[in-house]
Design brief:
Elements lengths: L8 H11 L9 E5 L2 E6 L5 E2 L10 E2 L23 E4 L3 H4 L1
Parallel strand pairs: 4-5
Antiparallel strand pairs: 1-2, 3-5
Length: about 100
């Protein structure tokens, strides 16, 4: 994500996410203290082309340096034979 003009990439990313179907409005929050924005949590859907636990079961993090910190949870016992690379909402690719 590179900077374009005076707009930080995070601003462009949030705009892209809000415009698409992956935005989770109820889980995206703004923290305000003394009438000033001091924080923001933005939640969006991600995609996994197989629903299984992370690297030890074949799921690769978007960034390999995350190692064991990248985790997924098995939702169905029959899903353990699936694997694949995780990908974020498409808005991340456009910024």
């Amino acid at each position: 994500m590179g900077r374009t003009g005076d707009q930080p990439p995070e601003v462009r990313l949030v705009k892209e996410l809000r415009a698409g179907p992956d935005w989770l409005e109820g889980l995206s929050l703004v923290a305000v203290a003394d009438s000033e924005v001091v924080g923001h949590v933005c939640c969006s859907r991600g995609r996994l082309d197989g629903v299984v636990p992370a690297s030890r079961l074949g799921i690769q993090a978007p960034d390999e340096s995350w190692g064991d910190h990248f985790q997924a949870r098995v939702l169905l016992a029959s899903a353990t034979s699936m694997s694949g690379r995780f990908s974020y909402a498409e808005a991340f690719d456009r910024v």
